[in-house]
Specification:
Blueprint lengths: L10 E7 L1 E3 L4 E4 L1 H12 L7 E5 L4 E2 L5 E8 L2 E13 L2 E8 L6
Antiparallel strand pairs: 1-8, 2-3, 3-5, 4-6, 6-7, 7-8
Protein name: DUF4333 domain-containing protein
InterPro entries: DUF4333
Pfam family, one: DUF4333
Amino acid sequence: MMHRLRRGGCLALGVLALAGCSGLGEDTVTAEHLEASIVEALEPVEDDAVRGADCPEGLRARFAEMTRCTARIGDERYDVRVLITSVEDGEAEFDIDRARTPTP
């Protein structure tokens, strides 16, 4: 997994291998992989420990597909946007962008 953080922001870039979605014939990034990527991407830049992430569903591996997840950091919850930026050779690259303020 590759990560790059934008200074002053909470944007991380990631790469995941794709899994075929049974019966649909298209590649997806599972919710579990998204959650693990969020935790890994945010851990190095947070003062409080990242306690986990929750994504309601997986994501079709297509350019510009997007989903919203929630990261648990310390005692707070933050909205996280995951956006597919490219798909090539069985890997999806994506941005992970965490809100600057906790969810009320």
